[in-house]
Amino acid sequence: MVNLETLTARSLRHYELGRLRMAVRVAIVLGPIVAICLLEPVGREACACCAGLLFVASVWLRFRSRGGVESVTTGLLAGLIPLAAALVLTRLDPGCAVAGPISYCTGFSLLIGGAAGAVVMLCERGRAPLSNHWLLAVAVALLTASLGCIRLGMASMAGVALGILVGRASMRGASVAP
To answer: Is 105 within 8 Å of 169 (Cβ atoms)?
Structure first.
């Protein structure tokens, strides 16, 4: 006869292992993104650090709940916009890394961050209005964007962060209007 406590413990262990496998699958998406960022000659150490934080945060959020899976998906999608733009801007104008807070590079980062914030709002619009999952999506988007923006300096990172928040807020106002 099978001991029910042993069977329950074994089934719970397999359930948790399945959740962990599902959560770690985000590495399939993050691997190529991180590889592209690590191929850039400038800022590899900072990129590797941000990639590690992004991987740990993504796995933890995806393991935690279904809402975390959706937040990570939304954040990765939104963060790819400033990531790609920052990689292109790094190639076109390497001087953006030393540009001050009042420069076209920071303005461009603010604009691209606004587009990422709009993506977060559009993806999150079907959720409950009092849900705080958008904060998690914004955090993942910022970590994803930082893979490319960190080599442009703190002014660009701040511009992207502010742009994401402003873009999300402006789209929220647009979606509420009749």
So the answer is: no
